[in-house]
Amino acid sequence: MSSAISLPTTAHNLVQRRTATPLSGKSHTNNSVTQLSRPQKTSRPDQWWLLSVPAFLIAAYAANFLIDVYRVGDSAIIDRIRSSLFGISHIVGGLTAMLLGPFQFLASIRRKYPKVHRWIGRLYALGILMGGINAFYVSFTSLCRPLGQYAFAFLGLIWLATAAMGMSTIWSGQVAQHRNWMARNFSLTYAAVMLRWQLPLFISLGMETEPALTLTGFTSWIPNLIFAEWWIIRQTPKRASD
How far apart are CA 127 and CA 73, in angstroms? Predict the structure, then answer.
């Protein structure tokens, strides 16, 4: 029994003696204890797939939107967008951003293949430029009411603005700010995902297409942006401690 008690006691005394060392050795010991006590970061592929699978599905839907193999969704909306080069360009740009965006959240690519990360980012930004500029035409020729048209147009504007801020911050070496702005930007890219399930939901609840589409002009992206801000605030202390 005495030997069983002496081991923890000895270890406790050893820790006390080490933490009581002179100033020259104190910092090293405390840092070692802190590193041992701090939980190691682990990747969460489940969270990445949770974000990515809906994005990839909507990208596939957008591709079908272009080639029109399977008529899925409101035919009036589909025909209106596909009837102009502006609408097709908006779809191609949004499709590109939706496909590439999730890969920018993979830390393994950022750390091991930074050149790949940068090139994906450039193509992603190009997709946003194409989709965002043409979003104004799509917004003001959509079937929703004027209030919804302005909401979608404003979405296109801040989609472009957040991408511009993301690019300018990385060019000036502000990595943390770059990540924050691109998180905001992808939350706006994700509006396409939210719209695709919200619109049929609202219609199934008895709404006509016009008011339902008008409502999604707000609900498809405002909650996303709020979530992105919450995520940024939550991540800031973690980045500061790294």
Answer: 23
